[in-house]
């Protein structure tokens, strides 16, 4: 009797494993879905500056010279708008918070594009 139960559980576990193998996304698909996509917008420098002044200067300084956060004055020479959008949206480590719940996607995109021009 125990052999039948164990065999049945083994078959069920194998079937479940097969189902999960074919229905779960691959690692590449999961990474792509987890990466925020920069929406297409027209950059507005004045709005971006206002958003930065309202949300970023406490860590990055009033001229983006750095402080608690890194210097952003030439961040565009290091990171693309897509990369900046991802960092602003998701945050980075324990120091950079996520802004996805504080700002709209378009606002984050505007700031990312504005920062990407700082070279």
UniProtKB/TrEMBL annotation:
Keyword Protein biosynthesis assigned: no
Transmembrane portions of the chain: none
Record carries keyword Chaperone: no
Domain of life: Bacteria
GO CC entries: membrane
Residue span, Cytochrome c domain: 43-119
GO function term, MF aspect, one: heme binding
InterPro entries membership: Cyt_c-like_dom (IPR009056), Cyt_c-like_dom_sf (IPR036909), Cyt_c_BACSU-c550-type (IPR012218), Cyt_C_IC (IPR008168), Cytochrome_c550/c551-like (IPR051811)
Keywords: Electron transport, Heme, Iron, Metal-binding, Transport
Coiled-coil ranges (or none): none
Name recorded for this polypeptide: Cytochrome c
Taxon lineage: Bacteria, Bacillati, Bacillota, Bacilli, Bacillales
